[in-house]
Specification:
about 45% helix, about 180 residues, single chain, alpha+beta, 5 helices, 4-stranded antiparallel β-sheet
């Protein structure tokens, strides 16, 4: 019998997994975020230099734009998406294949067999492992579902064997690609 874990994804789990997903933003997205922050700092500095309070405040607001977008747009939309996605709220099971060729995900709506060749990357933090089947579609595996590390440990080892470990550091987010 293959090792398996059962779990439910809560709204806070879904939100935290979405944050982990966004941490792996592409280079242009990180560059745009950095540009917004630097431009805001530059506007603030200009306002300080010219003693223009309005420009200083506008610069600070502009520099904080990535944070505001996250808190005021992304998080509410992610929460709404979870609430409108009843299948995500149901019991799920992840099983490692005995032949170590992949994993099987089961829920009330069906079963998905994922071989390592069908995954394009994986990501991990202290709370989750995300298994990507498309650049923006992933399965969420909460580590809390396996306190004894009987499934998560072998899953991580299999993923590292297949994808390689690209500097996995403790307590940091690591993104693994083929």
């Amino acid at each position: 019998m293959p090792a398996s874990i059962q779990y439910k994804i809560s709204e806070s789990d879904y939100l935290a997994a979405a944050r982990l997903y966004r941490k792996r933003a592409s280079g242009w997205a990180r560059a745009l975020k950095g540009f917004l922050i630097l431009a805001g700092v530059a506007i603030t500095a200009f306002g300080v230099y010219r003693h223009l309070t309005g420009v200083m405040v506008a610069g600070l607001v502009y520099a904080a734009m990535p944070w505001w977008l996250q808190k005021l747009i992304n998080e509410p939309l992610t929460r709404r998406q979870y609430r409108r996605y009843p299948a995500m709220q149901e019991q799920q099971t992840l099983s490692l294949d005995e032949a170590e060729t992949g994993v099987t995900m089961q829920s009330m709506i069906g079963e998905t067999r994922l071989t390592w060749e069908h995954l394009i990357r994986w990501a991990e933090d202290d709370d989750f492992i995300l298994l990507y089947v498309q650049p923006s579609m992933y399965f969420i595996v909460p580590k809390r579902a396996d306190p004894g590390n009987a499934v998560i440990g072998p899953l991580r080892e299999a993923l590292q064997r297949h994808f390689g470990d690209q500097g996995n550091k403790a307590r940091t987010t690591t993104i693994h690609k083929k």
